[in-house]
Protein 1
Amino acid sequence: MARKIVKRGPKNYRQAELTHGGLRLRIDLDDYTRAPGDFGVFDLATEKYLRVGEVVLIDEDQKYVERRLSPSGSSPANLGPVVDWTPDVFFEPSAVGGPYEEVTVPTSYGFAPAWLFEAENKDVWVIHIHGSWTDRSIMFRDVHAFKSLGFTSLVPSFRSDTEVSPQQAASSHLGQTEWLDVESAMTYAVAHGARRIVLSGWSMGGTIALLTAERSVHRDRIVGIVLVGPVTSWRKTITAGAARAGIPAIGAGFVMRLLQAPPFAKMLGLGEAINFNALEWIDIPNRVVAPTLVLHSISDQEVPWEISLAFQRANPETVTLIAMPESHHTQEWNTSPRVFTHELTSWVRKTIAESG
């Protein structure tokens, strides 16, 4: 259980094929592939991505689902037989639209690659912070949602990502050390003209955003925080995950005590033990100072909605919580892109106006 918390797990590949003359994707049926909305698949054979849309057929007996392929882009003649299902629908920075460039952010250990989406407004920057065991491309949906605001966007990587150079952490520190790389991204933004900064973090990226807002030397420039399905209490998130797996709370508590012990943490490849008190925003009232928006699905099982509800109640003066329609963890945009974008942009416009 401890390894599952801090180590990258294996990919859950699915069998898939094209049907109806290449107009539909047939893929193994499960709770994720049957979910409404737009998603993507990565074909391991061709190393190409496909965007898939609405569900048109579910066969419960044969255990497959058919979905329409997105009309954008060209479909391959063949597919699979094994693909990776992903909530990423843009796949590359050019698909988001607008100018962008690959930049490198100086860090304490070397250079971390980042995407810079320059916009008309170079005074306000958004730092997009991805979660654990994903990569920065998963945040293209977030960049797209912010696009109409005209802010400059920076999408950094951090030390537990495979693409940083030289290679760093083989284990996730649950945001405890990763926030330092977002601090480096903020330093880069300030050096390139950022006067006001919005932090936008998804899942563990929420933990990182909250830590950065407290500890950064640039925290006075932070005018707002946007969180999507955020981990605001690792204790409660781990306990909920254990319960979902049929592990009693006492077992989850034991694992967390082990992760706080330096010798055990070192065995798992952690550079330092986990301080769960530092990663707790629910049991400590009024800890959040910056105006914060939380967008969270009411049916999220990985990070239950109730955790964000408790987070808002602990920080009633600064946190706005929006209940999003049913979706899986950090797939609020996929299921309801218009609702997601409207709620996000409306809140940010109001918050930026009040701050400036």
Note: The first helix runs from residue 2 to 6.
Protein 2
Amino acid sequence: MIKKILVSQPKPTSEKSPYFDIASRFGVELVFRPFIKVEGISAREFRTQKVSILDYTAIVFTSRHAIDHFFALAKEMRVAIPEDMKYFCVTETIALYIQKYVQYRKRKVFFGTTGKIDDLIPTMVKHKTEKYLVPMSDVHNDSVARLLDSKKLNHTECVMYKTVSNDFTPEEVEAFDYDMLVFFSPAGIESLTKNFPNFDQGEIAIATFGPATAKAVQDAGLRLDLSAPSEKYPSMTSALQHFLIMQED
């Protein structure tokens, strides 16, 4: 019987989160504890990529992490960002976050609606003469570069932040008594095996979101009990709810 679930994400800020409905409906305890965290790279590490921020006229932001670490690096390297720099963001929420660092002007901030880079491409194509810089995590694939190449846009991708293990304290290791673990990235699985090198899964259920995370579980020699998304259960919460119903039967 599953009574205590560790969700490897930050605790939802909204009380309307489906996770809280699950906890109430099934009488389970949900603990939110990320297995990974994001850290900025140093100016010295950045310089090895031989990228000069001032060579570009537009920055593409896919997350608030990218914004934070872009401006942190610029500050550390004493790079003054020009007033006419343009910013292209995958959502309006991310676009508005830029206000933390620069004055928001609609004529230089553009955003998509779906959160996917594909949705932003038509706007970028309208500004075909820009030189685009795309800050990224060290964990990424070439899909963004291929997409921008396909539209013949002038662009460069660079790493500005990295995903690292959010190590458990000895006290957390001692108190590790969960019935189910929920993961959202392969890096989370790496963190699990790093923090618990002798991890014995036993009856502990493991749930994953995304095919890459599911593969990481299997590659680690662990048992995968729940995988999302699926056509019927597109979110982790809907899949988790179905899983708990099946457990009750």
Note: The mean pLDDT is 94.
Protein 3
Amino acid sequence: MADKSTEKKVPQGKSMYKYISEAWANSSETYVKALNQERKIQWRKEENFLRIEKPTRLDRARALGYKAKQGYVLVRAKVRKGAFKKRQIKSGRRAKRKGEEQLIVSKSLQSIAEERTQKRYQNLEVLNSYWVGADGQHEWYEVILVDPACPVIQHDPKINWICNNKHKNRVYRGLTSSGKKGRGLRNKGHGAEKVRPSGAANGNRNN
């Protein structure tokens, strides 16, 4: 019997998802760059929130819970870039009252895209989302939604937790991956005691 320690290890081939992930990781140097340039020409002409049939980034969609089965819906959301400042007011108001100074957006563009998508698809629940492109004025995200009323979802033990009423409107409570990142919940263990349920909420609770 051959010793296991002397046996040669056969290199394992990369999966399809790994190739897709590597191409998107270096999108400026791969075929993704030319593809995205063509896509964005079309995306600019489309609606701000458009339901699509297939994910643009299959690796990210699958990693975030998407499955090609009944009950799952994909929506490509477009949000404008910038600090969301108010329009400049020329006259009729004192400068200190016009509310243009020190405006800070507390949410990421991704979280804003998820919330706006939820507002348009109120019978569905936002599961997660991922980035697919950007230009000088806009950013595009593909949002994964789930239908809690779909029998296929209700009988799937891996996703039927979302049918529970306590998960309703989870995107507005910062429970998606993007929402948790914005609340500082990516840190775990020692040193992260004061970020639950979020840094701001913990500070308000202790004051």
Note: Residues 31-43 form the longest helix (13 residues).
Protein 4
Amino acid sequence: MDPVVIPILVAAIVVVFLVAATVRIIPQARRYNIERFGRYRRTLQPGLNFVLPVADRVNTKLDVREQVYSSDPKPVITEDNLVVNIDTVLYYQITDPRAAAYEVADYLQAIDQLTVTTLRNVIGSMDLEGTLTSREEINARLRAVLDDATGKWGIRVNRVEIKAIDPPNTIKEAMEKQMRAERDKRAAILHAEGERQAKILTAEGTKQKDILEAQGTQQAMILRADGESKAVELVFQSVHRNNADPKVLAYKYLETLPHLAKSENNTFWVIPGELTEAVRTVTGAFADQSSAGAPVSVQREEEAREGPSEGEGGAPELETDPTLALDAVAAADEAAKQAAAAVSDAKAEADAAGEVQLPGRRPASGD
């Protein structure tokens, strides 16, 4: 090898080394702290930077983006002497790379220990119920203390969140029982309110139903009474207008007696005392008609034998059928037999039932 080439190669290597040691390219969101002979010189910003080789060196490389730090669960004692494990999440950002590198040895460990001590101070003034329901207050107090303490370290604490609060298992069981009891209480209250509303609505519906039924019954009775009143009035007017004979009324009275005995549910009924009077009236009416019919027919037969009288123009008169009197007598007898048979049947049925009640007047069978 040529002796001239060796020095040239050595010089080239030295130049390359010097250039590499002089030029520094810093990525975005990164900061490099430079020391010159062991003393802080400056902080390199993102981009192309030049330093003195051998004299300057990079001490720390820091990321200025927002960082997330999740601490391990730490035991904390509450005001009512219960131990709970609290897990926190910290969001921070380096604002001063020089202070973060030279003001504190390990800023993550410092922030973790500061978070634990602050939590113990805050939680120690609260009971378990307040701890579980006051997360926002705890977060705000933690952030205020950490931000004040880490400001001189070149770190800004943006947020502090409590990730989990784990009470002891016995407390969890007691809380579950309490929650179950509260739910059962609310369910019982809601069920009782529902039953109360249902009973109120049912009572109101029954009330309205009874009122409507009573009004309907009242209207029906009024209409029925009006109809019966008009019917009685019409019957009364018809009887008085036609001047009905008491004999006809007595006969109608006898006609209604068989209907009284036809009912299947009647085991006890009373024979009225006026029955004998009605039978007498009907029998007397037919007897009077038969006795009055015989002389008239005999007189008419004699007049028919003698012939027409003088001065009457010789007009013949209609002959009366001699069987009319016999028919009237037969009809009267038949009516009396039917009335007596109806009375006998009624008495027989009443005697069979064992509940016959006769009035103090003469019995119907003796007429």
Note: The CA atoms of residues 49 and 286 lie 156 Å apart.
